[in-house]
């Protein structure tokens, strides 16, 4: 009996690792058209008797405004081009804050958010966090920073039923993702902590304040590098990237 159970567990383990690694490798090249979050949001709308809203259109990163990667780095993960998936200082800061505050602070990097958006569900269980860390390692191992950003800005929720840069550009700004201005991108980035609460279509005074803050922070981010290239520290006006020499 024990031998039989051990054999089953062995094959389950092999299947898990082989399937997850193959999925990550496949998404290194295949556009991500559907994510678990998109499906769960649509099911939730249908179960509540609401009209299903699902706007998503994949675009290569070179067909998205050059300002958007810079804006989301400034807002969500300023060390994105320097770390290997985990911003340890941000994680420590969030953990310390959450010990004494009811309103929780996130410390997830862009890579971690991509892992969660593309492969996992949205709750905060330890199982999900553990799998998020596992997929984060795989993504950093098999994808380039360019690919991580490409998947991130195409899959992240940017409003109710709106996923990715092209959808938010069309539905909130009446233009293509390639036409988004620096200010547009800063406003989009300002909503990312909670895109169901904050809107880039009808921004509140708080959102406009966050937009201005992010625009200031964008000056300290380098221009996002093309695939196969490294960032140029001289394209930032100061800060960690300006000081870092390659």
Radius of gyration: 19 Å
Helix content: 55-70%
- Average pLDDT metric: 90
Task: Profile the largest sheet.
Answer: 3 strands, mixed
- The helix-and-strand class reads mainly alpha
DSSP strand content: under 5%
Number of helices: 11
> So what's the overall shape?
globular
Q: Say how many strands there are.
A: 3
Q: How are the strands ordered across the major sheet?
A: 1-3-2
Order of helices and strands: HHEHHHHHEEHHHH
| Spans of at least 5 consecutive residues with low confidence | none
State the separation between the terminal residues, measured CA to CA.
58 Å
Oligomerization: single chain
Brief sketch in words of this structure:
This protein has eleven helices and three strands.
Q: How is this structure best described in words?
A:
By secondary structure, this protein is mainly α. Helices cover 55% and strands 3% of the residues. It is built from 11 helices and 3 strands. The protein has helices at residues 2-26, 36-47, 67-76, 88-100, 110-119, 126-142, 145-155, 165-173, 182-191, 205-218, 239-243; strands at residues 55-56, 157-159, 162-163. It has a 3-stranded mixed sheet, covered by helices on one side. Helix 5 packs across helix 7 (145-155) and helix 9 (182-191) packs across helix 10 (205-218). The longest helix is centred in the first third of the chain and has 25 residues, at 2-26. It is globular and about 65 Å long.
């Amino acid at each position: 009996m024990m031998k039989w159970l051990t054999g089953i567990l062995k094959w389950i383990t092999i299947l898990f690792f082989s399937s997850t690694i193959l999925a990550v490798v496949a998404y290194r090249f295949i556009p991500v058209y559907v994510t678990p979050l998109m499906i769960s949001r649509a099911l939730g709308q249908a179960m509540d008797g609401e009209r299903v809203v699902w706007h998503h259109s994949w675009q290569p990163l070179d067909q998205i405004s050059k300002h958007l990667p810079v804006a989301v780095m400034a807002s969500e993960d300023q060390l994105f081009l320097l770390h290997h998936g985990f911003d340890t200082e941000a994680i420590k800061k969030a953990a310390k804050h959450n010990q004494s505050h009811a309103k929780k602070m996130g410390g997830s990097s862009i890579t971690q958010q991509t892992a969660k958006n593309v492969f996992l569900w949205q709750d905060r269980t330890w199982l999900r966090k553990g799998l998020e860390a596992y997929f984060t390692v795989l993504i950093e191992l098999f994808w380039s920073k360019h690919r991580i950003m490409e998947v991130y800005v195409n899959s992240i929720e940017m409003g109710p039923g709106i996923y990715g840069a092209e959808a938010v550009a069309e539905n909130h700004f009446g233009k293509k993702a390639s036409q988004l201005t620096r200010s547009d991108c800063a406003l989009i980035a300002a909503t990312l902590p909670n895109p169901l609460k904050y809107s880039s279509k009808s921004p509140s005074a708080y959102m406009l304040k966050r937009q201005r803050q992010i625009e200031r922070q964008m000056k300290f981010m380098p221009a996002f590098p093309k695939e196969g290239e490294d960032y140029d520290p001289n394209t930032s006006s100061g800060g960690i990237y300006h000081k870092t020499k390659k």
